């Protein structure tokens, strides 16, 4: 087998013959001796005006057998097998359930939100009527937060698990097979719900169970060493093991742990704003001119060190829209999403900066709150939750609704203490609407100070980025969990709670759909190994 790279003009669609000819040249053999050419990766190279598509391929000679990629799509009856409770139907819980079935265990999935069809009505109501269902929204419900956030599948977690198996599983259940070779694969929020539903139907056909609108209110250890799980609807479930995959927004679960005296740790996360530009502006900057029909909506990735801390782009959505992602009444949270075609007129990304426990303790002291985070790991964790909630609450207070506090990027940078600059706002894709505000008065000083310095610096890397056409909306606060549920690095069990397996973003061990799926698989494999 010979791996190699080749490139063609972005406007040209290479044929199988083109790839075979390139393979023969790379392997130094006649084309007739190439038995198969596999496409491993494709990407856009726009570093010069001559834009290319680069392809990474593997050439197999006669007699060589290409390896098969694994999948977690195995049909078998586990209806009479021992149960494992899986709390959360996001990617960590979903792939944990699929892996348990492969290993002959019966998953019982408890999801606080509703299924993907009913969840769409709850999501629409936030913008149409201002009604928020705290258990079924953009963050909670079947498929988790990623279902309605573009379905990005790019990850750097290759050493932690089988990324190929995760991507093939998505393809098995209806995703475009090209996600397996795209450098930055995504599914799109218009297609992901049907794929998530197909996975659920497979799990149920194998004997697994789903329980929607079933929010966990308590976890109790049984005398036999297993677990009893109590839900708000009165349901009670028991199993030898529990996989806890609740997602990064499940503050009630973290507070349950704190209240019980179970180990919880504070951890850094990132907070900032959503920056929305005209997609045409990003296209021109990245493609050195107008975007041609054969090119996708341009993306960007930016990072800058400011005052010793990172400021960086997060969850970039080319051709996307902004959505309200609050999970608690009286709060404003923004996020981005895009459909498979990425064809809206806007581009958006979170522009965030790192927030550490010491930042939060100082902030709460200055604002008259208790001196959290001093002398107690649980206190520090609770402080992180309080801080996140306080910033989201302040954003809601500004407008008294789900309208997001917003400001032109240039006005935000020019504003200083005692000198607000707030001009009329450009149009936005954010359905609840934007409320003209000075974000320097809404967000914490240590956040705004870094962001003000970062935006002009970003312009030196991506010409035209710092512009009055860009709108900033607050707050982007759900980048990751602000706490971690500590676990044994070998067994993956909570350090003080045998047979309880925290995993995914909510437990503080992943960031994104694929890495969360991998972490769920790892938790399931630990259970199966017992």
Brief description of this entry?
By secondary structure, this protein is an alpha+beta fold.
Query: Strand order within the widest sheet?
Result: 13-14-17-12-20-18-19
Task: Report Rg.
Answer: 24 Å
Largest sheet: 7 strands, mixed
Structural class: alpha+beta
Classify the beta-strand content into a percent band: 15-25%
| Helical residues, percent | 25-40%
Could you tell me the number of beta strands?
22
Round the mean pLDDT to the nearest integer and report it. Answer: 95
Separate helix tally: 13
Note the overall shape.
globular
| Spatial gap, N to C terminus | 37 Å
List low-pLDDT spans.
none
Description:
The protein is an alpha+beta fold. The chain contains 13 helices and 22 strands. Helix 2 (91-102) packs parallel to helix 13, helix 6 (251-260) runs antiparallel to helix 9 (377-399) and helix 8 (357-366) packs across helix 9 (377-399). The protein is globular and about 75 Å long.
């Amino acid at each position: 087998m010979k791996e190699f790279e080749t490139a063609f003009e972005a406007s040209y669609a290479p044929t199988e013959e083109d790839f075979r000819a390139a393979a023969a040249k790379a392997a130094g053999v006649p084309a007739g001796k190439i038995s198969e050419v596999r496409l491993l990766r494709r990407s856009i190279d726009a570093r010069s005006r001559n834009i290319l598509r680069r392809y990474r391929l593997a050439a197999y000679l006669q007699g060589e057998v290409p390896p098969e990629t694994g999948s977690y799509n195995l049909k078998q009856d586990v209806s009479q097998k021992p149960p494992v409770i899986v709390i959360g139907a996001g990617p960590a819980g979903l792939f944990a359930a699929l892996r348990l079935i492969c290993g002959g265990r019966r998953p019982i999935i408890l999801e606080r939100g509703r299924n993907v069809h009913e969840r769409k009505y709850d999501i629409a109501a936030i913008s149409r009527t201002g009604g928020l269902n705290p258990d079924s929204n953009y963050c909670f419900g079947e498929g988790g937060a990623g279902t309605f956030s573009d379905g990005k599948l790019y990850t750097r977690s290759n050493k932690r698990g089988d990324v190929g198996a995760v991507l093939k599983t998505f393809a098995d259940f209806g995703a475009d097979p090209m996600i397996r070779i795209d450098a930055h694969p995504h599914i799109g929020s218009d297609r992901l719900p049907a794929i998530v539903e197909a996975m659920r139907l497979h799990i149920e056909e194998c004997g697994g169970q789903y329980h929607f609108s079933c929010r966990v209110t308590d976890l109790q250890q049984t005398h036999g060493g297993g677990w009893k799980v109590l839900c708000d609807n009165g349901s009670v479930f028991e199993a030898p093991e529990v996989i806890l995959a609740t997602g990064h927004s499940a503050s009630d679960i973290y507070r349950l742990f704190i209240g019980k005296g179970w180990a919880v740790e504070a951890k850094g996360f990132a907070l900032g704003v959503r920056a929305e530009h005209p997609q045409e502006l990003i296209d021109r900057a990245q493609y050195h001119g107008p975007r041609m029909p054969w090119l996708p909506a341009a993306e960007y990735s930016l990072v800058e060190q400011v005052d010793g801390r990172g400021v960086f782009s997060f969850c970039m959505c080319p051709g996307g829209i902004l959505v309200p992602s609050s999970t608690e009444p009286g709060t404003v949270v923004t996020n981005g999403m895009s459909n498979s075609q990425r064809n809206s007129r806007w581009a958006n990304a979170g522009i965030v900066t790192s927030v550490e426990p010491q930042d939060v303790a100082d902030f709460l002291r200055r604002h008259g709150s208790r001196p959290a985070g001093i002398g107690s790991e649980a206190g520090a964790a609770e402080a992180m939750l309080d801080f996140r909630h306080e910033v989201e609450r302040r954003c809601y207070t500004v407008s008294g609704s789900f309208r997001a506090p917003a400001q032109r990027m240039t006005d935000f940078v020019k504003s200083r203490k005692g000198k607000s600059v707030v001009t009329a706002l450009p149009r936005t894709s954010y359905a609840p609407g934007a409320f003209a505000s000075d974000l320097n008065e809404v967000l914490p000083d240590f956040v705004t100070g870094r962001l003000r310095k970062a935006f002009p610096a970003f312009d030196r890397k991506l010409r035209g980025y710092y512009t009055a056409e860009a709108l900033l909306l607050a707050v982007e606060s759900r980048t990751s969990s602000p706490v971690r549920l500590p676990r044994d690095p070998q067994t993956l069990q909570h350090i003080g709670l045998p047979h309880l397996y925290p995993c995914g973003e909510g437990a503080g061990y992943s960031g994104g759909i694929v890495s969360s799926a991998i972490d769920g698989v790892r938790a399931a494999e630990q259970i199966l190994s017992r």
